[in-house]
## 1
Amino acid sequence: GNSVTQMEGPVTLSEEAFLTINCTYTATGYPSLFWYVQYPGEGLQLLLKATKADDKGSNKGFEATYRKETTSFHLEKGSVQVSDSAVYFCALNPTGANSKLTFGKGITLSVRP
Amino acid sequence: GAGVSQSPSNKVTEKGKDVELRCDPISGHTALYWYRQRLGQGLEFLIYFQGNSAPDKSGLPSDRFSAERTGESVSTLTIQRTQQEDSAVYLCASSLAGPHTGELFFGEGSRLTVL
């Protein structure tokens, strides 16, 4: 079946540090891949996505590259800010119009001033 | 507001009682989803409504769970005879198109605690 595995958290970083959050997936075919973010007191919202191999999604300084050879979609940011403190979810959508998003467990990021 | 609205935000109930959770999607969104997040777990798909099509109920964990949606508006998720393992945050999301775009808009969730 389809699954998403995220690195264990929580993660605590100092402001301006480099961030990597690992995500690997298992799926048949060619899924689309997503990162969702949940800021404190808010609902999950789409951060970025990539729909085919070697695509790079980017938004708000975050990037993730769809790597089919390693079945990965790691999230990176060169310099984190306190406002990036949130829970980050990796997700995949298998091929097909009526398929459903499969989410990872999420990881909490805390950024210290 | 213009976002997905869920109520109640918190619900504490006794084992064996029935509960109803409500979701008001973004106006014009034809697709509506319910997910569940247990402590330390990922989001677990429960049910999906798309327009007037028959809902995809494949994620409902037991016959104690049911959901309805009136047209393209409000949805209610009902859990009958609640059990302690039902304790979780229940998330509702809506989208303009089907799930294949991946762009779901989530509410803040309803936290259910079964004592």
## 2
Amino acid sequence: SQQGEEDPQALSIQEGENATMNCSYKTSINNLQWYRQNSGRGLVHLILIRSNEREKHSGRLRVTLDTSKKSSSLLITASRAADTASYFCATEKNSGYSTLTFGKGTMLLVSP
Amino acid sequence: DSGVTQTPKHLITATGQRVTLRCSPRSGDLSVYWYQQSLDQGLQFLIQYYNGEERAKGNILERFSAQQFPDLHSELNLSSLELGDSALYFCASSVGTSDSDTQYFGPGTRLTVL
């Protein structure tokens, strides 16, 4: 079963707007990661946030983590057409193994 | 380019057949992971190897097996193929087994079972 569930399933915005994607998960985690996947291609790691962190920034990306609500959000500011992709959250459970459980993803379409 | 290579890019075969997917990790990475991505199941972790040894197992079917060789490349063997095995199969690699190690994904092998 999927550990992470992204919301919304799909998001369509204009260039320059901000995009926010949410992820909820079920069990306690060591960290949560966000990945991007361009259509049918491999996943690209974007950012990792540890369970003891609340917020993290990387360029135009801002990730928050609320462990009490078991949720995370990914904010992409000033979006570009090149940001069009599917975005997945992946959780690493506190299991002693570095294995990831992915959600089903949010499909982001950024129109020029 | 992640540095992880996978061959072949596409594979079309018939039900009941057996195929082998190959993965070469990034230079210096000791861990290799296999994932399956399908429309209905999403992206699922199958199995992990670290320096030649099986490290963790996910939702891998008994018809599937994998190994990591001394040169660290890995192969995923899928046998008695069924229509439902049609999917994208990704390999990823990381330096070690720490939960802070980033996994780098290959471009995937698209398997179509007819």
## 3
Amino acid sequence: NAGVTQTPKFQVLKTGQSMTLQCAQDMNHEYMSWYRQDPGMGLRLIHYSVGAGITDQGEVPNGYNVSRSTTEDFPLRLLSAAPSQTSVYFCASSIQTGISGNTIYFGEGSWLTVV
Amino acid sequence: KQEVTQIPAALSVPEGENLVLNCSFTDSAIYNLQWFRQDPGKGLTSLLLIQSSQREQTSGRLNASLDKSSGRSTLYIAASQPGDSATYLCAIRGDNQGGKLIFGQGTELSVKP
């Protein structure tokens, strides 16, 4: 059981370039989300999805785009990379919304540097 | 707007000591609270989840408590070991829609042999 898989692990981009961070889970989880982690600021929610075909914005959505065409995959697209998007990105999933006791599982992170 | 704070930002203790990590939040209307462990260069691993109707949860040497009225949660680690060295984060889930989490900044724990 692979859990939540993120690729790539490390990426360096030039300002203005676009790229996609991939996230896949094999647990048949409905809920998936993307967070970014910056020093001294904890994790902040970028976008999330409660099921295939449904996405919504989190706390810091600007500059990012997502889609959810399948239950398993939830890619995060950087449209035009900026140095402020240098961060560590985490994808997460959980079994279902509306259940108080369900645990959220995280991928191992993607380190992105924009120069 | 919910805000989550963890103090201290860093903590260093000798091996074998019992310790408490603190998490405070501003809005008591929470759905659940979760404690995570993060090792350097790694993702987050869930340690304990406390539902809003619960007061505490225990797993091995870890015990987490929740006091919604005072907006506080504590993570108690008994008989600390060097392998407990990591960053510990608490996160609040505010509602039953989407499972969005609001994180504290974390406490970096170092347990010295």
